[in-house]
Design brief:
Helices cover 9% and strands 30% of the residues. The protein contains two helices and eight strands. The strands form three sheets. A four-stranded antiparallel beta sheet has the order 4-3-7-8, covered by helices on one side. The protein has a two-stranded antiparallel sheet with strand order 1-6. The protein has a two-stranded antiparallel sheet with strand order 2-5. Strand 3 (40-43) and strand 4 form a beta hairpin.
């Protein structure tokens, strides 16, 4: 079993899958390579990266070409779900201390682009069953 699969990660432990609906918009006149799976939830000394596929039905995955899911054409907008797999301890630590860390597109660009990205967004988690 793939050690990074949801079944392997959550096997024999209680946990949560947190899902965020994201929109990635390229407002520049250039194509941008952007790694949406690097959007992290962070807080209380815990940092977790996202998955574009785990627990995300195909219809809700980040729109665009599956073979080039990191490429965002000029003036394009793509929407989809990203997930975070958290064990109980990490989830409860993050519930009140969480920020969403959004990487700047220049972290992946071959040359610097003008951006207006705010890199941190506060989140408020609610437990739903």
């Amino acid at each position: 079993m793939d050690p990074y699969s949801p079944e392997s990660y959550l096997a024999n432990q209680d946990g949560f899958v947190v899902t965020a609906d994201v929109i990635v918009e390229n407002t520049t006149a250039s194509n941008i390579n952007y790694l949406a799976e690097r959007i992290q939830i962070n807080g209380g000394g815990i940092s977790k990266g996202a998955s574009l596929e785990n627990f995300v039905p195909t219809a809700y995955q980040l729109s665009g070409s599956p073979s080039a899911h990191n490429m965002f054409p000029a003036k394009s907008k793509r929407e989809g779900a990203i997930t975070y797999m958290l064990n109980k301890e990490n989830y409860y630590t993050l519930v009140h201390l969480t920020k969403l860390i959004v990487p700047n597109p220049n972290d992946f660009a071959e040359k610097a682009l003008p951006t207006k990205t705010t890199k941190t967004i506060d989140l408020d988690f609610r437990i739903t069953e």
